[in-house]
Fold these 3 entries.
Entry 1:
Amino acid sequence: MRAPFRLQFEQRTETPRRLGVLVPLISVLAALFAGALFLLATGHSVGDTYSNMLSDGFFSSTGITDTLGLSTVLICTGIAAAFAFQMNLYNIGGEGQLYVGMIGATWFGLFFGENLPSFIMIPLVLIGGALCGAAWIAIPAWVRARLGTSEIVTTLLLTYVAASLVNHFIYRSGSYFRAPNSMFPQGRQVPDSAMLSPIGDTKMYPTFFVIVLLSLALHWVVRRTEFGYRIQVISDSPRAARYAGISARRTTVQVMLISGGLAGLGGATLIVGSFQRLDPGIVTLGYGYAGIVIAALARNNMAAVVVSGILFAGLRSGGDKLQISTDTPIHIGVMLQGAILLFALGGEAFRRYKIRIVRTPAVVSEATA
Amino acid sequence: MNQNIWVLMTGDSVALATTLILAALGALFTERSGVLNLGVEGVLLTAAISSFIAADSSGSVWVGLIVGSLAGALLAGIHAILAVVLRANQIVSGLALVIFGTGLANYLGKPYEGKTISVKLTDMTFGPLTDIPLLGPILFEQDIITYVALAAAVLSSLYLFRTRPGLEVRATGDDPATVDAQGLMVSTIRIRYTLFGGLLMGLGGSWLMLAESAAWHQAATTNGVGWIALALVVFASWRPIRLVLGAVLFGFTLQLPYTLQAENITFIPQAFLQMVPYVATLISLIALSRPGSTNALGAPKSLGVPFVRDER
Amino acid sequence: MTSSTYEGAQGPHHASGAAPVALEAIGVVKRFPGVLANDDVNFDIRVGEVHTLLGENGAGKSTLASMLCGLYQPDAGRILRNGAPIQLSSPRAGLQHGIAMVHQHFRLVDRFTVAENVVLGSRGLSFKLNRAELNDAVAAVADTYGLPVDPTATVGDLSVGQRQRVEIVKALYQGAEILLLDEPTAVLVPAEVEKLFENVHAMTKTGKSVVFISHKLGEVARISDRVTVLRNGRVTGHVSSKGQADAKELARLMVGRDIDLAAQRASHPIGHEVLQIREVSLVANGVNVLSNISFNVHEGEMVGIAGVAGNGQRELADVIAGLLSPTSGTISIGGAMSTDRGPIASRELGLAYVPEDRLGVGLVPSMSILDNLLLTRDRNVVVDRASVRPEANRLIDEFEIKANGPEHLARKLSGGNAQKVLLARELSGGRTATKLLVVCSPTRGLDVGAIETVRRLLDDARSAGQAILLISEDLDEIMSLADRVLVIYRGAIVHETPGATASLEQVGAAMAGLSQAGGA
């Protein structure tokens, strides 16, 4: 039984630049369209849902600032994922590294915060969180470089361990991180010197600008420096890297540590920003996983992650507010994110290959014996 | 130490292992054909909620199991289209499936939050056999799906290594170019096994819901079991029989916190006990690594690599 | 050159005239993006005949063969089997008509046994596999044609020659009457080539037809009943004097002009010793990959290392380049020790290395020519591309590289141009001027124009005083270029002789492991 047509894939030697932007764009639209169909099928109003999402996400003054505020951590986890993914190192444990970053940042805040002024504390907390995130990825990085163990599963498993850690630090009575004198378990707030004030009466913090600059700086590093050159060689052609005397092993560890550190940094921005304490609710938010979707949509380009991150922050922010404004479950937001990624992946095929429909020739006539 | 509790615990481990075995077998078949489907966690959740809704509304456990399995196959079908037909990056596609599947499951499960299911899968009894000391309760007091899982593992082993289609799927995972040159359709084979893998995963997720949890608590229902299943395939070197052994071992670790709690051993903090399965998986993965390649021992050589026929 | 005569196929019709035509292509055309691979080609093969398709790389012979077996479909023209027109939509269809091709790159699953590979995909294979039965069946087919194989052996463990035999057994098992062999002798030593010819003879005696696809004039002349020559996609001539084909005539048809087959050998003054290898051995996984290798190379000298692929050439090149550390022995470049110091240290001492794989090892496919030039050079923390650009432009001109400037991506270069980029980069050196050039299989897969250019570049470099180590599986290449010829077999140097007086028989025998302890 043979189909009359078959798809023929021809690897493109030239990839038109416009497709690089067009494909993600169409994916978003396609996902929104599919989402609309789904909403209809499950009996929710498309118009209400989408218009509320969009205005709450982007097109209102509180909407856009809320979005930008949320995007701070999402861009962080996005560049964390993108930095590693570009070298085919699939760090999907950004979620866990974020948790550990939060734990570390909180600890630095609580331990030093009483005695040191703000202009030292803020950088200390941020860097401390980043270092802890890097520490959390250290083992997967090492075994990947040395033993070839798949970083996909190792980083993921550690995420679950990190979640247990967060729970342990909050629910264990007498824990350092736990707020004393409170009815039910919650995190202890860090001292004032470790906190930033929001910009005006928005939910945005100055860390937003720091993170955006960091993303652009990393973009420059990848394109223009020796380190970035090495990354490009190894990701395209590990054998060429060996030939050129480039140590893939060392670069692997370096890239993964930076990736973990960026995710930890994301956690730290939450401590100096909106959270101000170690909150066990963080494990339900999935910021780390969102980073992966953001990175994939931005095709692992550090600068594009900023745009992609803001877009996703808007979707989430708008989606979260749906709870209040309509009866659509907020999970539509998460579904849309997954759907956008799925469509983007499909769209990639069109970018990388020229796909033609080829008619298969008529059935072979039996040879005369 | 009360000997009976260990017997009971082993019995429970075998039970818990059921989901692991089914999900891992599903992943094993998919990967044997060369496709890496990381979306197991999402598939399990979607299947779980689907089976819940189906069983609850129909009043039949069997309807729940069937619907759940089909839901699993459907979700895996998305991955099949992306990975096989469109030659997308299989790792990112699998992750997208986890995210999408988790969101979908939570979305569908919203109305059922915290509800307990009205029907449940019960253990089968084999009468006097359960009185055999030690082995009795372990082997003969499980529900039917557990037996199905064990049987499936044995049949899978025979299928893969003793039949023609088994030869073909193994060849497809190692060297699709050769299979293609022999006139076999690589894409068809891969799609078929990805779907079948999803079916098995779906059955595992449904079982988890219908036999074990009985209540919908969002993502906590599966709690990382899908990822352990993926590691289990590596641990078993892609061989079904070894997979069963590994599943029981890991089932053991998943069961540990509850058993120790029952025995009133409380000096180990709960949180650390919960970490045990994941840390154990991590350590065994590392121990099985083969320096010089990112595919562990026994891995299909073309795993995760999209097949494009070299058409010049 | 050789004195053995070859008794061609004598089918049942030899006395009265030609045997019936088993397979025929009429007016066949095949286009690929940017190239007309086959232009109105006619070709036929008779029952019991050996017919060779001769042509240089890129002439279109593989394309034609692929259409004859069903791998490609012609854009125009017809294919006839036993006189009846057929449509070959896939290799499977080809097999249904009894046509099978054995490719240059074998299609075998390394992990499976010989028998499993032979039966994979065959029609009528039962659902349950009975291993014993299958092993016997495979052995039976193999024995019929004198192709000894062990059905239970794992293919991954077999040598190249043995694997080729498995491929042939596979084709025969699956019912092929017409076999197309794509460059079968490229991977064989002269002795194995003889064995192959014997097997082909056994096959044609029973009425099978064999199409040889080759670019090697010498062998073609001996084995073929007929030769069809292709150039640039068109048939330029047929020759059907069995065993007596004129090499010069064939060469002219292949290339379009007279080429001088005699080696050109000018004498070159040689200078100081540049490379010294002393008792280098390499043991990996318990196997002696390299055994006690010692030789040297001087300024202005080209030393050629001949051998069949897989006898340690890659490892030797890697060891010299500093990519691998030998288990014992020393390497010195320009008088300084380079053993165990890594590839960058070797380059600082003046080594340049053109590896076998152009794209993927020597060049990074997704990077531009400019970035690839930087690959083996020192780079600053902030990579300074601007300063390399003028040099890149100069090299592109000097080496006549067809590209749109330094930003041209490596993967878009043709094989010949990629090789030129590699040579340009390696010859021009980095911080240190190049003193020693190690080059591996430089002309593999290139068309004649590119081959000539590359050889000329190497020759010029030698004349300019460069020391060159040429490692190649192409014996003709080494014989025509090298001042001294060494033969490597199973990781050891088994023969050494000056290029001018080298005897093909001795070198060939050494390549097959049949030499006495090497003497010049």
Note: The radius of gyration of chain C is 25 Å.
Entry 2:
Amino acid sequence: MSMIEFKDVEKYYGEFHALHDINLKVEKGETVVLLGPSGSGKSTLIRTVNGLESIEGGQLIVNNQDLANPKTDLNRLRKDVGMVFQHFNLYANKTILENIMLAPRLVLHRDETSNKKMAMELLDRVDLADQANKYPSQLSGGQQQRIAIARSLAMEPKALLFDEPTSALDPEMVNGVLKIMREIAQDSSMTMLVVTHEMGFAKQVADRVIFMADGKILEDAPTEQFFENPSEPRARQFLSQIVH
Amino acid sequence: MQEFLQAYSWINMRFLLNGLWITGIVSVISILLSFVLGSVLGIIRYMGVKYLSRIVGFLIDLIRNLPLLLIIFFTYFALPKIGIHLNVITSTIVAMTVFESAMLAEIVRSGIKAVPKGQLEGALSNGLNFYQALWYVLLPQAYKKMIPPIVSQFVSLIKDTSLATIIMLPEVTFRAQTIYAQQPKFIIPMFLMLAIMYFVLNFAISRLGGYIDRRMAS
């Protein structure tokens, strides 16, 4: 069973055809990077995976749950599928430590001692243990994003979705975030779907690259093949504009 | 000058201050009740529950567009016709609560809407259900933003209790009227004293609200 499977998925915003006949499989433990020009539907696609966006046609199975079925319990799904956003979305009213501990406490009913222990270990892992009692607004963007990743990991998800996690960061902050993402990708049990413009990261970490334009998947290829010899003219054009 | 000194005799002042106490009690009970009711209504409206949110929205719009005086008439003169007899204090509290809940519901709804959408998405993606997201993430941030409008609503509520003189609630304005009805030359001193009392009370509340707002912001 794949972790994520799109079959003929369609998505509209009113008249606008946002996702067009999407077919895509992501296997357990795989790291897949979504590339494409802005407005190509990458973010919409990744947001359908945890039900932040609904789909209008086709089938979408994530962690054995059918997202086309309105009766599917999205909450149960989201326990296992974390998401990291472009703008971090840390809880502004909670400290860093509370940001990480809230969902495990409320959703997983993890006991307070082990919850705190795990949160501190995660903070240590993202190198921010000394910031535990600060509020998100007191941290830099890069630090906030590392916390957001730690918050997702605290739920011990099976899959993580990254929606342009470094796009809102100052250049000097990007590497710290990518380093953590690389480490997560090395964990062979974690499935990762990443929308990014970081070509270096894609080349180094992705098992496969999906290239999208105008709401369609134009190319789905192993990473090396995609960067060496993309078959689609649009993909070639895209790469020539980005890779220097 | 002479009539001012006479007007502000200890007996009159005590009579007025007791009225101010009633103004205060009625206001505090009304604001507490309408805070709870207004929050519930505002949240229902924010959530967009099928039919229910529409009905609540209609009721809120209806009440917001009626004069408070008319609502006071309803609770005091109309409710007894259907067998509900309330004394003046209770009638005023009920009328005020109905009116202020509608006002607060709108403040609460726009307060929640003003919290960036990413907060809800972050919470949902983190595994929280909608109610957990609302309770632990959205509402704490929304109420913080709502302190200034809620305080100014509270101040108008205190001023509006004077409308209940019409059903003879013995609050401070009614008592001032009682005094100058017996002694017409006290009319100006009484108006002046009312102005001072309302101003001191409301200005103090505004200042306190501002202080809390700044404390919460830091």
Note: The interface with chain A takes residues 116, 118-119, 121-129, 132, 136-137, 140-141, 144 of chain B (CB under 8 Å).
Entry 3:
Amino acid sequence: MADSEMREPTFFVLAALADRRKHGYALITDAEQLSEGRVHLKVGTLYAALDRLKQQGLVTGAGEEVVDGRLRRYYELTDDGASALRDEVARMQANAEQALSRLRLRPAPMAAHA
Amino acid sequence: MSTPAADLEAAYRATLRWYPRGWRVDNEDAVVGTLLDVADAEQRTRPQAAELLNLAVCGLLRRIDPVLPARAREVTSVIAFACGAALSLTVLLVSYLGPLARQLVPPWWVGPSDPAGALPYALWLIAFVFAVAGHRRTARWTMVAVLASVAALVVVRTTTQATYSLPSWVALAFMFSLAVMALIASPLAWRGARGVASIAALAFAVFAGGAAVAGGFSGRYHHERWVFETVLSPSNVGIALVFALATVGILAALRLRVAAAGLAAATLPWALLWFAGYFAEDAAGSLVSAAVLAGLTIVAASAVALWAWLRRNGIAVPRHLARMVSAPAVWTAPILIAIMVWGTRTANATWTALPYWNAVVSVACYGLPIAVLTATVVTAWESSRMRRYASTDHPAPATAYLAQLARRVWPTLAASIAGYVVTLTLLIQNSGVPQAGAPNLLVPAASLAVLLSAFAFGALLGRLSHTAIAVPTALVASYFWFAFPSAQGSSNPAWLNLTGFGLPQSSFDFSFVPATGALLAPILISAAVVATLALVLFLRRAVVGYAAGAVLVTAAMLVGNVLVAGIGQAPYAPRSVAELVCSGDATAVCLWPEQDAADGARIRDAVGEARLQASKNGLTLPDRVEASSSVFTAHWNADVSYLTSLPGTGASTQLIKTAYATGVLESMSCVDAPQTADDAWQALRAQYALTMLVGAGTTALLQNSTPLFTPNNSELTSLTAVRQALDVGSIDNARRIVRSWRSETKRLCDPRPAV
């Protein structure tokens, strides 16, 4: 996986876990907020992603609690997960800066044609 | 009492049964909690269909995980997706986007493809473009549309009569399974767009290259099923499967498990295509093959299990017994015999040959390619394991090496001969002992020479290289040995003869005899290969031996080219007309001795009846009738009518009359093959009329030619529709049609110098 970029849902799950531990539903709403509504994770997809991230050691379980008779399982980022996210952000930032520097070189728009 | 909330939870829990039990024990409560949270937030008390579908798919994938983990699925998906895209482009180019070709020369026996058939291929290409451009979601939904379009075509096929212009069942089933494989993961997850594009480019090179070799871009119209019958024919797909599975083995040995599992799963749709194509060609044969394959798998698995059990229980198998059974020549021997016998069954679906010795010994050679492959690979393996015999410090005498090698590989030679003899016996048992003539022993002799050169070639490979190089080289070389001639077909008899591949074709009809010159060619080349081995062994200096061998083979080919007249000719030659046995007073009906012995009286009676009927209907026919094949004889002859394409022994009187009518038509036509759809239609009309005039049933003739396409390309599926379109009607009209055909072709013949 190292040679291909992180897929968007994976990125937003990791990003949503960056500040503190969260449970499933919170992850879905957070990912949606962070992506400005673009990424709407289905529950099946979310848990498949969490299983995969757990297997890769990027995410780990962080306790459970029962609220209104519903089980909430929390997840948190591992140190590896945090550094994977940091790497991905640095990659995106580098890309963005490259693009910005090119944009700065663009000649200023001419005055409107008569 | 159930509440909406409880119902919702129950629905979710029921859907979660798609997941494996172990996973549910760990995760079900947490997932249900999240699902209910989402439902609450959306103020729902009912599950959404998309949500349940997503859970079912994720659950199913979770179950596949132990067999095919997510990473391996990505490999499978990218291979399936890229191959599908390459195939789609090939089919679109060959069969749908070449409508210009259709405008130019539409062969009358192939109708136009229904444009609806192009839908799955076009959608697949669109999905490919989206995927490579990074629009994964759109690509995914387009692939779902591919599945839907295939399903729609299935419905159309089942509800319509004119099915010939639609993709075949095999093609539909294959495209569906390939699309499912492409959808089991995101193709872009493994090595990204570049990976997809490079695999697609490679696959396109293979498919389009195959189509080009088979003449797919020659400007003629080729139906979509043509691609599946030539480039993706069961034999080609079967060979590709063998190579793919060998690659799986190599990847597994290199501990690249993910790639090995992914590639193995990616072969599934192709295995389906192979089996379905084979089944369509020969249902009984394919079932027998599947049963034999399953049987062999069970035997092999039991042997492994028994071995493990014996070892677990501390029972030692005698070492020499174990070594003997595990020697490649020994365990491949029964498989070799089985494949030789059953390969003949596949190539010659009826398991019969004409009761003609030359045909019987030729057909029995169908198993030769697999014997050559086994001999080369087994000998390369054994020879390369005997490297100490080739040690430069203390080289063993050449005779010791040969004796040791012979001890190791003789079971392969014995099995090859046994395979030939069993095949021969079964053929004779089914078709009866030929009642005249004697077999031409040059055919089995040439086969044996080719086989011996395979042993010599394998020995050379093993003598000079490591097993890891010798065995794959032997495999690839044997593959090319039969892939080249079959790719070139009978269009390159020189190649067929040099390799000995033409042996099974050396005679398959009463009118042919094996061409002696052509059969000398493989014998000569084989002698050169064997002599090369001898040189390498006795000169003890590999380089010198090889150089001498190269000179020898080249010399053999040069000498052969000059001396052996048969090198560039077909492996079969026309039989001498002097052998014909003629009888009859006013009308001489001349047949080959075997035909005469087995069926002469019936053929003569049928021809006599046909002539009588024709003269009643006002048609005079030449007095001499000769058996012949249309391959060698120029049939434009006013004095003789030929009995061409006469069916085998025991054919019905009707079929004999139909064959006679065909021969009469050929002898009065000087156009070799119809050039345009209209010519072809007129020829069929004349043939139909002639068949009526000689009193033969027209049904057999039409059944051989349906589905038919009229010159304006409409497909005719029923015999009634064909009869109506041909519009021959009464005997009087039939006579008029034949007379006008006769004068028309006479006009065409006149400018041509007499043969």
Note: DSSP finds four helices and three strands in chain A.
